[in-house]
Amino acid sequence: MVGSANLNIMIKAARRAGRALAKDFREVENLQVSMKGAGDFVSRADINAEKIIKEDLMGARPTYGWLGEEGGGEDGQDPTRRWIVDPLDGTTNFLHGLPHWAVSIALEHKGQIVAGVVFDPAKDEMFFAEKGAGAWMNESRLRVSGRSKMIEALFSTGIPFGGRADLPETLKEIARVAPACSGIRRWGAAALDLAYVAAGRYDGYWERRLNAWDIAAGLIILREAGGLVEPITPGGNIIEDGTVIGANEALFSPLAKLVRG
Q1: Do 127 and 229 sit in the same domain of this protein?
Q2: Across the chain, what does the average pLDDT equal?
Q3: What's the predicted TM-score (pTM) here?
Q4: Structural domain range at position 194
Q5: Do 158 and 197 fall within a single domain?
Q6: 6-28, pLDDT tens digit by residue?
Q7: Domains held by the chain: number
C-alpha cells in the first residue's frame, strides 16, 4: 500500500524508535538482578524512544500539536492536528523480558483519529491504517474475524494491577464473559490488543482506564479493518473516557452486553 506523506513519516519514526528499543530490550535480561536497575533502564529506554519519535514527527510537521506518554502535551500552531504517541506500550512486558510490546503513533485531525501505526519490533509486524484506506499489517490487508458464535470467540482484556479501584468491576466482567466464550487473554499491551482484533487473531477486546496514547492508533486500525468500537459507557467518548469495547460486527453486541452487565 502507498500511504500519505504523514503515514510514511509515522512508519519511519516507529521503525527508528523500534530499532532503538529492540537494542535496549536485549540488555534487559542482564538487569533482572536489580528491579530498580531494570526499571530505571526501561524508563530511560522509553524516554529515548519518545525523543526519537518526536524528532522525526515534529521535524517533519513542526506546526502540529503533541501528546506523548512521557513528555505530556503541547499545543501546535495548527490547532486542528495533533500527534498522539506511546513510545513503549507494554512497558511491564519489556521490563520482564517478554517480547510483546509496541510503538504506537496516531494522528488526530479536528478531534478525529485519521491515521495510526502500531509497530511490534520483536515480531517485525507493522500495523497501520488511514481513514478510508483500510488497515494493513506489513503487506497484508487486515480484516476482523468472521466468527459469529460467542462460544468460539477468543477475547482479550486488561486486568488492573497495584490495587487499582477498578479491579473488582473488571473481575465481574471477566466472570460474565468467560463462561460464554472460548477464552480470554491478558497480554498487557492495549495497542497490540486492538491491532490483534483488527487482524482476526482476537475476536474482541475491552478495557477500562486507558490513556489516549494507549488506544488512539489501535482504534483506527480496528475500525478500518471492519471492526466496531465504542466506549464501555454508551454515548461517551473513547479517547476522553479511556474505556473501550471492540469486536467484529457479529460479536460486538453480545460482548458489549456482557461487559456492560
Answers
A1: no
A2: 93
A3: 0.94
A4: 150-260
A5: yes
A6: 999 999 999 999 999 999 898 87
A7: 2
Q: What are the distances in angstroms from CA 199 to CA 23, 79, 127, 130, 194?
A: 27, 33, 9, 15, 9
* Grid cell locating 31: 538487569
Side-chain half-sphere exposure of 149, counting CA atoms within 13 A: 3
Same domain, 85 and 120: yes
Cβ–Cβ contacts within 10 Å for residue 16, how many? Answer: 17
